[in-house]
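Q: Got a minute? One more chain.
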Amino acid sequence: MKLQKVKEKLLKKELQQTRKFKKEFKKKEDKNINELKIIGVTGSTGKSSTCVMLHEYLKSLGYKSVLYSSAMVDSPVTYIDKTIGIEIALRSEQDLFNIIEEVEAYEADYLILEVNESVLEKHILDDIDFDVKVLTNLNPFHSEENYSEEEYVELKKSFFRNTNKDTKCVIGFQCYNEKLLNELLKLTSHNDKYLFSTDHILKTYQVNKNFFDVVLQELFLTLDGLNMEVKVSDEVINFKTKLLMKYNAFNILATITTLQALNLFDVDKFKDVIYDIKVGGRSEVINMNNRLILIDTQLDKPLECLKELKEKGLINQIKVVVGSVGYGYKHWDEKFKSEEYINSRVKYRKYAMGLLKDVDYVYLTECDSGAEDVQQICLNLKSYLGETVNSEIILDRVEAIKEAITCSNEKDAIFIAGRGNKRTLCDGEESMKFFKDSEIVEEVLEELTEKGWF
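A: Always. Here it is, folded:
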């Protein structure tokens, strides 16, 4: 159902607006919010970045767009700071009610929602008729910590189950799985579908490229960003972006394909937007005095790109600032306090430290430790690193970032992993600190510049 009926259903549950609106936005009773176009983006990775890219492009065309993603919430009628990341932007029916009130007051043209596993699990969006549903990619093992392979795949498939026939479906495949693709195509048999992938994947699995609307043909990584050759329908287009990490190429494909579905893809406008786009906390790069400082929520894919840059001789040493999430913070979901979750941390900490075996130096520090002892977490991580990787423990994350930058040399890469652009760091069962990694980087660089270090 469209948003007006969803709102009426939520009102019957006695939900009321809980967020303060800016004075200039007054409630407009005559606005038909059923005219609003709604885009939902799910997937294993790239959800937030794809949402941000779509949002910025639509704004560049002059549309009023409201965005709810973990990388950014951009809702102009509220006081939410769009520069701050949030773990889950849409948690409850109350959040959904607030969003409906916001798009109504803003008279928005578009609403873009990141759809993560918890939203699907809670069935919060089941009643909404999306104009476009997007699956960026699907890795059945992406969230082994929280779901079995079967549970995870079923959750993602549930987003496309019982989809309105007028909804356009955009589906991407990063690791081609013919059986899964056929299941998704069957689920959406009555919908218009738009598929995207890469030439490498399609050749590897001998898939007919003509079935795919958007295909990445070439990708080149440089210190200045990514150069891409993309086949869009029958046209081959070259793009450049300052985004550094290779995984952003797939996010760009998802964005192009979604714009194709909306019939809004303009090559020249898209080139302008994508060249200089920034996604907070995702592949966020700061270049200073011949040093590359990278901030990202992920660990594995950014490391792959940094290692490639090192192999090409474009950077010298790779230094990583990293920690591990603990357990027991009072406001976290109950499953993050369970014995099963606590025991699972061993497996994932071993895996994360295994990724660091080829880096030059590791600073082990805090990262949402919750009720778990930070010192013990860091000692645990250090034991998995073994003697092959140089490392040290600096419990205070701010000090760890400062040390990593201060002790760097020209052509070094300093990779600050795990928190992206989140401002809150839960450092106890009932306590938290407030800072963003990027703010600390800027403060350190400013201080070092004043001292004449750079």
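A: The chain has a mean pLDDT of 91.
Q: Perfect, thanks.
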